[in-house]
Amino acid sequence: MQVNNSVNEFILSGLTQDALKEKLIFVIFLFLYLATLLANFLIVMTIRYSQTLRSPMYFFLFYLSFADACFSTTTAPRLIVDSISEKKIISYNECMTQIFAFHFFGCMEIFVLILMSCDRYMAICKPLRYTTIMSQRVCGALVNLAWVGSCIHSLAQILLTLRLPFCGPNVIDHYFCDMQPLLKLACMDTYIINLHIVFNSGTICMVSFIMLFISYAFILHSLNKQSAEGRRKALSTCTSHIIVIILFYVPCIFTYARPLTIFPVDKMVAVFYTIGTPLLNPLVYTLRNAEVKNAMRKLWCNKF
Predict the structure, then answer these.
(1) Which SUPFAM superfamilies would you find in this protein's record (predicted)?
(2) 9-303 maps to which CATH number?
(3) pTM of the full predicted structure?
(4) Domain locations in the chain?
């Protein structure tokens, strides 16, 4: 519920106030966003229609690419449009919607990465029971739980935001609506709400990051029992996953697992995990995965 709120719209400061730099931002980020959509779309469609990519790993990769495309869409289009707009105005309702969608798809990406690490652990450490444990029914149930968990996280974030009264300045020192910049504008003591945000988003980032590294530590330790070929293939797959995890989690932990403090570098860090990582993920998974590249080449060459 909106409480004592006299602000109906916000003004986004964007990445820069320089007119020339804003034109460069428009060109660069339009290209990056379109490349992100194309790369993730290719992976989604390849997994959807390929007959060879039917293992649980590619089932989860399908949802990771979908979450990447949606996650990037929550911020990139507004950044691109605002870079050529005189007034970077966003309404209160649009701001709340952006916060919900941003945290929903960001949390979905976190949960899918955890599911992918569980899948790799079962495939490498429990190979004889892998097909039984990671059945299609189990994988579907896990993804459904990820959707529900993401929704709960986003609802918690948006309910905290709706409690904030805004009665004065309405300039958000960012290029999209997020909790931390909005707390600076609230007409109340935000210490308790900030603790809730750090506990919510920060804990999810930190705990899942630790869980992922523990799981991959077990996986890498178990590779000693594998054959040379199996060790090489497993190591290649796990290396891709670890790269993705580091690229996504380190900026997120820097942003959300700390008290309310705004740093000048925050905007560039946000650019990296909202626009850069969704583009790098499909590149990492395709360039380092011969099976995906072969399936993509075979499927699209036959179609075109």
Answers:
(1) Family A G protein-coupled receptor-like
(2) 1.20.1070.10
(3) 0.90
(4) 9-303
